[in-house]
Amino acid sequence: MKLCFSPTSPYVRKVMACAITREIDDRIERVTTNANDSPPEFVAINPLSKVPALITDDGVALFDSPVICEYLDSFGEALPMFPPHGASRWRALKFQAMGDGILDASVPRRGEMIKPQDEGRVAWIARQKAAVDRTLDALEADPPQRHIDIGSITVACALGYLDFRFSAQPWRDGRPKLAAWYAAFAQNPGIARTAPKDPG
Ligand SMILES: N[C@@H](CCC(=O)N[C@@H](CS)C(=O)NCC(=O)O)C(=O)O
């Protein structure tokens, strides 16, 4: 399978963290893609022009990260990242939504912060930051479990993204339980081996 990817995308990180955890990362060929430029060969794969996008060995194009991560569960012998049913499934999906939601509010916020700050943009940025802060508070009140699944992986990728791109807004302040959870969870190989770095 081929993964259209960018090295600093936290959503791509999530996919690779799942693949490493399930020990199938060697089955994935990575294709560097600049989604912001919307190259024609890429929008033919993902009309939304966002990475990650996966092309399966059968030639099927899959996006976005929740869909790709669930697809990866169909390979290998390791435990699935998506619990099949019951309370553990809904809890994992809820944490995935919280992690993805932090990213959905933070990735575009970073882009808006470097543009001229008119009143509308300032209000939009503040609204996105407030959503992130509330979600971090909810995670402090009820952190993910130590067990690795799609929920805990996604929250870890979101916190890693805040460290990477928003280090001036330290999320650990006043959130000791979440900070302790992340410090322990980040030792998992899927997270440890995918820490983001600026290409330089
Ligand atoms: N909901 C998508 C979000 C993917 C996304 O926003 N990717 C960013 C990179 S971090 C992107 O490709 N942006 C390009 C664009 O929006 O033009 C997912 O979970 O995969």
Please specify the SSE layout and strand pairing.
Elements: E1 2-5, H1 10-21, E2 29-32, H2 40-43, E3 53-55, E4 61-62, H3 65-72, H4 86-113, H5 119-141, H6 150-165, H7 176-185, H8 189-192
Parallel strand pairs: 1-2
Antiparallel strand pairs: 1-3, 3-4
Bound molecules: glutathione.
Distance between the termini: 28 Å
What is the CA-based Rg, rounded? 17 Å
Low-confidence region ranges = none
Number of helices: 8
DSSP E strands, number: 4
Estimate the mean pLDDT confidence: 96
Largest sheet: 4 strands, mixed
Strands of the widest sheet, in order across it, are 2-1-3-4
Structural class: alpha+beta
Order of helices and strands: EHEHEEHHHHHH
Task: Name the helicity range.
Answer: 40-55%
Structural notes for this entry:
The protein has 200 residues and is an alpha+beta fold. The protein has helices at 10-21, 40-43, 65-72, 86-113, 119-141, 150-165, 176-185, 189-192, and strands at 2-5, 29-32, 53-55, 61-62. Strand 1, helix 1 (10-21) and strand 2 (29-32) form a beta-alpha-beta unit. The structure holds glutathione. Residues 6, 9, 11, 35-36, 49-52, 64-65, 100, 107 line the site of glutathione.
Keywords, please?
single chain; 200 residues; alpha+beta; 8 helices; 4 strands; globular; binds glutathione
Task: Provide a concise account of the structure shown.
It is globular and about 50 Å long.
